[in-house]
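Support case: user asked for a sample of complex input and structure output to validate their parser. Sending the pair below.
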Amino acid sequence: MVEQAIGEIKEIEFPSPGQILRQRTLSHKGFMIGAIVLILILALALLAPVISPHDPYHQELSKRMINPIWHSDGTWEHPLGTDNLGRDYLSRLMYGARISLLIGVSAMVISGIIGIFLGVIAGYFGGRVDMFVSFLITTRLSMPVVLVALAVVALIGGSLNVIIWVLGLLIWDRFAVVMRSSTQQLRSIDYVNAAKAIGCSTTRILITEVIPNILNSLIVIATLEIAHAILLEAALSFLGMGVQPPLPSWGLMICEGKEFMLFSPWIITIPGVVLSLLILSINLMGDGIRDITAPEGRS
Amino acid sequence: MSTLLEIQGLHVEIPLSAGILKAVRNVSFSVVRGKTHALVGESGCGKSLTALAVMNLLPQSAIRCCERLSFDGQDLASTNERHMADIRGNKIAMIFQEPMTSLNPCYTIGNQMQEALLRHRRVTRKEALDRAVFLLEKVGITAAGSRLKQYPHQLSGGLRQRVMIAMGLMCGPPLIIADEPTTALDVTIQAQILSLLKGLQQEFDMGMILITHDLGIVARVADRVSVMYCGQVVETGDVTQIFENPLHPYTQGLMDCIPIPGKTQRGEHLGSIPGIVPTPIGDMTGCTFRNRCPFVSKACAESNVTLQEISAGRAYQCLLSPEVCAQNLRGGVAV
Amino acid sequence: MFYYTLKRLSLAIVVAITVSFVTFMLLRLSGDPAMALAGENATPEEIEVVRHQYGLNRPIIIQYVNWARRALGGDFGVSPYFNQPVEKIIGGRLGITMTLGGCALAFAICLAVPMGVLAAIRPNTWIDRVALTISVLGQAMPSFFFGLILIIIFGVMLRWLPISGSSTWRHFILPAIALGYYATPAIMRLTRSGMLEVLASDYIRTARAKGLKAGVILFKHALRNAIIPVVSLLAVQFGFMLGGSLVIETIFAINGVGFLGYESISRNDLPMVQAIVLLVSMFYVTLTFFSDLLNAFLDPRIRVT
């Protein structure tokens, strides 16, 4: 006879998925740092019309090239100094954030729509459609983005809209690649088959299993492409083929400040550092999301 | 017959976020030249970790401590990594379970076999090659010369395992550890590999530790057995003793699970051990088998059971006396 | 292996043709090339003359076919700015860009591979964290900004290195660093993850069980396997460097193809731009193709069947 076992051997309790996610998020240093910096920059950008000390386009030629506050002759009226046309640098910086973020997000959305569409049809239909889309991706990857963007913008003429569209039409490749492989995998993945085996309907499978997994990769790629677009815009504007003056794009500010940088290095350092911080925070968040949602993939 | 390897009181602990995993607890046994000692138990009972602990190939986070770990008179517990590397492959060889992934895909078989010898002996490449050919033929691989120029992916699983065995023998080690050498192979190949191992052991007078979960293999190949459960050795003895008179309830349960030709009747139910293996994390008092044991009593939860030696080389770990255990034996297990 | 190569080669050729076609279309259709070539102050009559002169009044497809036909023979047209054949001018600058790209790649390899290996041997230690931090910072800083910073620090403040021109080998140091550092994070991360994966594999366990020395295990066994995808990445990164050299060459006034491209775009020198884009694309396509081949060659599982 089997007697009742006396003395329980303790069960180990595991936390719920929601708790795991929150704990991972809060303890992921990279993600938290990125999130904090990004929120700060976002706040500056959104509140710029309200808290900006001056009009970013207002030129005061008598007050040209005033040094920032950490120099001996700086003033609190222009904490980050003024540029060669007497415009307040802090204000331009804040409005520049708006431009970078606007271009970054818009270009990401456009490229996302193109890339997701191409990737999903390639992964879902396979066969000739897949071959054609893969060929498109390879062709796009073989084109030097900066060169082509430069050339096109030079011919059409630079403006905010042109930049957004040119970038959006050029950087869709990663969306396409990731969506294609995600969709392909999902057609025959184990847990979809397992769900089918226990009788789940296709819709339920799609909602509970398929979409959450695509969504994770998608969010990561979307985040990284925002940063990519911002970088490209800065490079184009730096070369003079991007956003046109007097708009305060950070890349343009670096370009305009270049001729004075040997005497007043701050004029290019300030926008450069802020630009790097923005890219850094977005990258950190993107990597963080990737780690948090799929730590098994992390080495 | 000299004692080749002696292990006493071996512990392996792995710190996890949920607590400290006591993967191997107080394991003791010894291996003698020319004899095979089997470590048998379910997956996760700590048998592979025991072997890795001997070789000091444990994962970086694992902590090993023991009362005594000596090989051929040398204390392995205090041997540093550099000297340990001199012993591995040279005095103690280890063969692993997965032949498909245990060879480097970028180098030829010959290259990998030669380096095993060239590392430990001052021989020429030609001499190493000759030895490789000799051993490949010993393990039953024909056309050894051309095989040596092939890459691992060009060989089948059975062939690769033979190569692994040959490679292990390159330096003529006195002790060989085989960790589930046939588990990943086809049943038809299993028997061949086992006979091969046994034959080589006798020809080269080596000691062997054979790790397996299959009692059938134990019966075929082993001379002595240690049955492991949840990190501990629950019973040790000669193969005939264990099979004829298993004492520990777990061992008895295992015997019950396998059909015995000539004894088990057609249509008769095979036994099974109810429950699952507990995870050995944190403090453990009492017997870890108690929640699955048919003969459990109150005392099992309270007192710490230890391995008792009832005669030379025969030990088990249970509160019940040997006589009661023998009585508990359900009929039909005696070989 | 042979058919694999053949298949990849034909794909590469088709891609190259498509890229040249797409670029051609893009450039002709994004504005009026005749207007661009004629200049800002040209009258409508002058624009028409230019249009006729360059055959821009013909259907686009015909224009492309003519251009392609001539290009296959090595004739890429004449640059209206230099009044010389385009291919001659590009040829003269190509060596400099290739040198810059090579130095940048060498810099990236020397920095990234050892860091990646070290980070993999000591995961989650300070070395690993430093490597990951450098990698993260590297990807955040735009290369043009980094180039300017290098100029300020090393060229002006410390006065160690020249900051403009391409006459001596010293002129290539700062540009190579500015160009190469951007590839460093990707190479380092791939090396690190590859090594981590390989070091956990069964054949490394076998190598340890054979008693092989740590250095042998690391380099002969582990790195040899882990480096395969990295080599492919290097080939592709070299291509990106050739394309991305535009910004760096412009900042450091290096007289290479990138700088030529920038100037030609500013001058609306369409034949030159067309040829340069095609050239860079050809490099991308060739290097991608080459990197696939390398991948197959380095892995005996693909090479020897």
